[in-house]
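Review form for a predicted model. The reviewer records the input and the model, then writes brief findings.
Reviewer: anonymous (R2)
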Amino acid sequence: MSAEALAGAKLLKVEVWDWDMGPQSDDFIGAATFELPDLQAMLAAGQHRLDLPSLLLADPKAKAGSKSRGSIEGSYSLLERPGGPARYGGDVGEI
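Model under review:
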């Protein structure tokens, strides 16, 4: 994704799904929303990587006692290509 497309982004919502190979239905595990810093300022300061805090995955449609469905954590990197715009990459893991 280009830096211009995310220039004003303040939040990053991540949804985690269990994608089934067969005709079974896919299962929504949960979602988490990360607050983003000023990405343009990060690039200007030479900072290209930021760790994301661990957040609980939640399913708002789940019953009250089972809304939490694990956690998600990771990092993202602001990548620049020679002669091209900055691009965003990420590594999210550990459910």
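Findings: The radius of gyration is 16 Å.
Further findings: The first helix runs from residue 3 to 6.
Recommendation: see findings above.
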